[in-house]
Every structure is written in C-alpha cells, then in structure tokens.
C-alpha cells in the first residue's frame, strides 16, 4: 500500500523519467503537476524541441559523464525491447576541427569530438576514421552506433508507463514551490516535492536560481534523410553556431541545427540563421539533397526554437527544505537532458529515498 505522497513538478524528460523510476516502487503515490505537458509546443517547455540523441558531452570523471554513462544501458534496452518508445539505433559520425575548440559550440562539443573519448567503451562499435579518409580541415573523426529519440513518441510513452504504475498527471503552475505540496491527488499534503522545472526554476518562488540561463537552440526539421547522425565541432559562421543532424525514429523527420546562443531568450526563429543552418548541413552532408541541389532541395516541415536550461556549475540534483517542505531538485541539464535522463533520475530517486527514510525515522 502506498505510503509516500510525492509531487513532481515538471513534465519534461527529466520530470517524466524521475516519475517513471519512482513509480516502480509501490510504496510511492505520485502526482506529476506541470504547466506544460507532452503535445504542447511552448518556449517555456524545452523537451519537445530536443533532437534528441545520445552524444556524450560530459568531461571524463565529472558527474555529467557518470550520469551519461548510467543512461546508456537504459536507452539501449528501450531501443531493443520497446519499439513503441520511439527510439532507434543510428550510425553516427563525429568530425573535429581543432580551430573550433575555443568557440561556445566547440567547448560544448569538446568531449564528444575527442580522439580517444571515455564513451568509446559505452556506445556500440566505436572506431576512429583513418586520417587518409578525412576531408581537408578535419583533424580527427570517429564513427559509432548510437540512438536517436522521437520526443513526440517518447514523452507520451513515459507518461503511459508511469500511469500503468498509478501516477496521476495534473495541469498546474505555481508562484512558490511549497504551493505544490497541497496538490497531491490524495488530498493530503505531500511528504516531498521533486522539482524538475528546468529554466522555470529561475523565477519559481522558494528556488529563484540565478545560476540558470538559456542557451537558445534553433533547428530546421526536414523530411530529407542524411543516412546518418552527423556532428561537427563548430562552424565558420559564428562562434555560437553549430552543425548537427539526426533522423528521429518512427517518421519524426530529420532535425538539422543549430545554435548555442547563451543568455538569448528569443523565441522566434531567425530566418537568416535558418538559411545558414541549411547551407551548413548540406555542405557537411551532401547526401541530404539530390546531387547538385542547394537548400531548395530540403523539404522543410518546420522551423523551431528551444531554450536549453543551462546552469553555472552544472545540474542541481540535491536535497533541500523550504518552509519545512522537503524537496529534491533535479534541473539545469542544458543540452544533455535526454542522454543523462536516467542517470540523473537515479540520483534523484536515491535522494528521495534518503529523505523519506529520515522522515520515517523522525516519526518513530
């Protein structure tokens, strides 16, 4: 019988993965409350706009790398056993230009494009591409098999799995985090709140995390298939403009990007940036279009903008108490929310269990 009343704030990939893992314990009674839910497309809600894929960014030995490492087995298992989750394997090519390393995008991709990265023993079939096969200007490159996720399918799948385990989903928004303690579906005050509100934690009362800031990402979603998931360390168009592409599972289209514009809150697509994104993608992967075609050969589905929830010092996954209410935070994942989702959620679940055990001891 459920004995722990938990409210989870936020229904992005972080909140939903945390709910899914917590719901596997029958002693937890969980309500997920969120302003935005899967199916919504709003600039405040980052998860639907993500690629999304598994291309590790965390520096070796850091918590970020450990979270990514812990997430791979879960994504691999879902890809192999649960096709309805909307994830598929995809051949991946990563190119590195040393001259990009000091740019904003280059710094973000620096671990991904290393010659001998830690994740070579995690992903499938990692190998270096021989120098003799590299185009002029490319210093090193690698290829491996990874996964690409279709958020439009995967986020509802997480909801479905959680609902099977008794999780209740409700719409709601709050000015102060402690207000969420009173919306548990049982009618009782929650024993604990898990805060997965991403960039919204910057303005949420009781949290107001000034370390949070957006990294604006703009993409073009097309029907063309590049035949592989391809990334390069940077571009010559600007230090915060980057080049990548991936084809989402189950007809989700190909996402080509992009940008990594820190502290930029603009929600509307920039048409000039869109043109540069498309030109760069074709230059890097001519297979995107028929021979001899330029951007007119791209069959555009839509232009999109998402705000990655970056945080100085990295994600906040820790215990807290605000006005007597127990809280576990799990937010600030920047551009690696999906590929670190299970690792981060496992850490949050551990903190939830520790907090609830302490409360039980206090009652005794």
Short description:
Its EC number is 1.4.3.3. By secondary structure, the chain is α/β, with parallel strands linked by helices.
Descriptive overview:
By secondary structure, the protein is α/β, with parallel strands linked by helices. It has one domain: D-Amino Acid Oxidase, subunit A, domain 2 (D-Amino Acid Oxidase, Chain A, domain 2, 2-Layer Sandwich), CATH 3.30.9. 23% of the residues lie in helices and 28% in strands. The protein has 6 helices and 15 strands. Strands 3, 4, 5, 8, 9, 10, 11, 12 and 13 form a 9-stranded mixed beta sheet that branches. Strands 6-2-1-7-15-14 form a 6-stranded mixed beta sheet, with helices on one face. A hairpin with a 6-residue loop joins strand 10 and strand 11 (254-259). Helix 1 packs parallel to helix 4 (151-164), helix 1 crosses helix 6 (341-363) and helix 2 (63-81) crosses helix 6 (341-363). The longest helix is centred in the C-terminal third of the chain and has 23 residues, at 341-363. The radius of gyration is 21 Å and the shape is elongated.
């Amino acid at each position: 019988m459920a004995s722990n009343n938990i409210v989870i704030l936020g229904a992005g990939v972080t909140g939903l993965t945390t709910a899914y893992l917590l719901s596997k314990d029958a002693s937890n009674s969980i309500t997920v409350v969120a302003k935005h839910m899967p199916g919504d497309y709003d600039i405040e809600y980052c998860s639907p706009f993500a690629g999304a894929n598994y291309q590790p960014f965390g520096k070796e030995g850091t918590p970020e790398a450990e979270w990514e490492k812990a997430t791979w087995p879960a994504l691999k298992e879902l890809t192999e056993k649960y096709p309805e989750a909307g994830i598929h394997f995809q051949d991946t090519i990563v190119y590195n230009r040393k001259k990009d390393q000091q740019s904003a995008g280059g710094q973000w991709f620096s671990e991904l494009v290393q010659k001998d990265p830690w994740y070579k023993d995690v992903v499938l079939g990692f190998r270096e591409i021989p120098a003799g096969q590299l185009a002029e200007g490319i210093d090193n490159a690698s290829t491996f098999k990874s996964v690409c996720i279709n958020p439009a399918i995967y986020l509802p799948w997480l909801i479905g799995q959680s609902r099977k385990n008794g999780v209740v989903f409700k719409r709601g928004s709050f000015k102060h985090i402690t207000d969420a303690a009173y919306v548990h579906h049982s009618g009782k005050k929650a024993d604990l709140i898990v805060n997965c509100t991403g960039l919204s934690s910057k303005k949420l009362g009781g949290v107001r995390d000034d370390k949070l800031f957006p990294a604006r990402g703009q993409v073009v979603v097309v029907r063309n298939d590049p035949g592989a998931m391809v990334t390069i360390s940077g571009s010559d168009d600007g230090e915060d403009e980057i080049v990548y592409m991936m084809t989402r599972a189950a007809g989700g289209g190909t996402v080509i990007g992009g940008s990594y514009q820190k502290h930029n809150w603009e929600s509307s697509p920039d048409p000039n940036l869109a043109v540069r994104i498309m030109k760069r993608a074709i230059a890097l992967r001519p297979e995107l279009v028929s021979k001899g075609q330029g951007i007119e050969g791209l069959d555009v589905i839509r232009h999109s903008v998402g705000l990655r929830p970056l945080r100085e010092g990295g994600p906040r996954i820790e215990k807290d108490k605000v006005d007597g209410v127990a809280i576990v935070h799990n937010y600030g994942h920047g551009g690696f929310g999906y590929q670190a989702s299970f690792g981060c959620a496992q850490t949050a679940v551990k903190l939830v269990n520790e907090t609830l055990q302490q409360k039980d001891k206090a009652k005794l």
